[in-house]
Amino acid sequence: MTTRPSNTDFVISYEFNAPKELVFNAFSKAEALNEWWGPLQTKNSVVSLDFRPGGIFHFKMESPGTTNYGRFIFGSIQPYDLLEFTNSFADEHANVVPAPFDISIPDRIFYRIIFSETNGKTTITMTGQPVDATPEQETGFHSINASMQEGFGASFKQLTTFLSKIEES
Hints:
seven-stranded antiparallel sheet
């Protein structure tokens, strides 16, 4: 895997009013991911989840007339502190496929999430970098930064709602 860190890689931070164990666990359980992961405009569901280094998270995203899939291959997992994975669009069998839109982006993007807690509130900082991308794909990746901020922000807002339901019960 080749990644090239640069000052234009994707970065998003988000704060949750929950302890980091609870936030981290929401990334590690299929029942939780079914509740919050993925684009708002799609119905999202876990196809399979093997939460361990080298394991896979295969998911389905459905909207009227369209079905897409994605996958994570997990790298380093340090419970409650760090989660790394390589994300790709996929087919129904979890094979990597090109993105289903007109912009050329990398087939694989490496993400690192760092979890930190202060006074019962958890901040996650997520960074993303193209993997083995052509110059055209790197340009495409950087061109969608604003929409990635919006999309991940919306997913993390759904995670906030999910976490508030857990803390109430």
